[in-house]
Amino acid sequence: MRILVVDDDANMRGLLSNILRKWDHDVRLATNGQEALDLIKQDDINFVITDWLMPVMDGPTLCKQIRLSDSSGYVYIVLLTSLNEKSAVIEGMRAGADDFVSKCFNQEELHQRIRAGQRILKLQQELEERNRKLERANDTIENDLKVASAFQRRLLPGQSSAILGVTFESVFLPSSHVGGDTFNFFQLDEHNVGFYLLDVSGHGVASALYSASLSGVISPCPLGESPLRSPVPESPHYRIVEPAEVLADLNRTYQSDCEIDQYFTMVYGIVDLRDDSIRFCQAAHPSPILLTPGKHAQLLGDGGFPVGLIPEAEYTQVEASFHIGDRLIVHSDGVTECLNSRDEQFTEKRLVGLIEKNRDKSSLELLSVVWTGMESWTGRVDFDDDISMIAIERTD
Amino acid sequence: MTRQEDVLIATLLDKRLDAELASDLRNTMLSHIDKGEHNIVLNIAHVDFIDSTGLGAIVACRKALGQEGRIVITGTRRPVMTMFKLTRMDKVFQMLDSDEEAMQVLARS
After folding, report:
1. Which ipTM score applies to this complex?
2. Rounded distance, CA A116 to CA A93, Å?
3. Is B67 on the interface with A (CB under 8 A)?
4. What are the sequence ranges of the domains in chain A?
5. Does domain B2-108 sit in CATH 3.40.50.720?
């Protein structure tokens, strides 16, 4: 090991360096604290044996300077002392010394004290190495998550979109880079527009992968087979599958097992432009909120089985009129369950109240009012759970 | 966790049954079921919030018990009951007020 001996007394330097070399250490020498500091920087030194009283810079000051400097790795310091009082030990330790050896030392004692110091340095180096590895691993994970999060956003439709006579606005905030929420809107045929919002249980990478794979499946995909449109022999050779049937089908396909215990809640619905109606199936998802001009905001539906949890689950659907000017707001439970500093939930009641109060605003403004409302409720700009909201409006 | 005759009574002491607790609950219960427990009373009287992972853990116990076993949930508080109703789990699980009632029901079967 490389050891720096700091002493203004040439005899003491000679004695110590002879002994240390005998034990195969690589010895460097300095005559005062200032020289020592320079050498430590130059020669990558982690072990110092220093005298107390020296000109230019004394031992305790050297200790303080070493502790203040941002040198690489820990420097273990042994103070040589002829002052054998308790107060000196305390002063030395306060300055940053690790151990003390009397100037009239016994060789074996010095040997063992150096070995004790070596053990500490070894632990220190192992800890630093482990931290470096963890930091590298963490950087890789963080970076992967950032890329994954960008991919996940690309799977979602743009913030605002219009299909036939229906416009959609959305808000999506994953809790930790990637999230288990996803949603989409699409044209099913010339009279029908489909939409869904789903929330995979848990959040993080596994939930995000699951929700990404689901978003590939739940699409009208005109070329392949889709759970939303099924082929029939007679013209137009397809049938739009009813929301409750779609959910029953997904529930059969995606049963959780010992390996995958994730499942999801979902609202899947269809806006029918011919008969001005909306119908949806609510699979354990919070109830959507209907905003009809001239009427109070109204919660539709009272629940349903989640998807992938109970094989024998049966699903029902809710139907309502949906004329020009009507809006439906679908949200994930992250909205109503976010907590304030007193651990109180935002609640469905508060959400409906906020929507009712701001009903004259555009859908985009309405979603942003809710978002701001949640931020002031939690006092934070990031949330513990994924947050997603869509507003569906019949425009013509 | 106590045992009366052939019924295992598990009482959750935490207030929030969320992702932090769910995997612990799942693993503990599954290891008991593996060891042959088949009548379980899960007392959630202390719980005032349950999320999707918590619900998933309870359903995992039901799945592990299979046809032979039975699980009864007791002491469900109102906000938690709302979650059970929203997800229709109140139809899947037998839900009773007290452990005594649950013991009687399990003894009759």
Report:
1. 0.91
2. 17
3. no
4. 2-129, 156-394
5. no
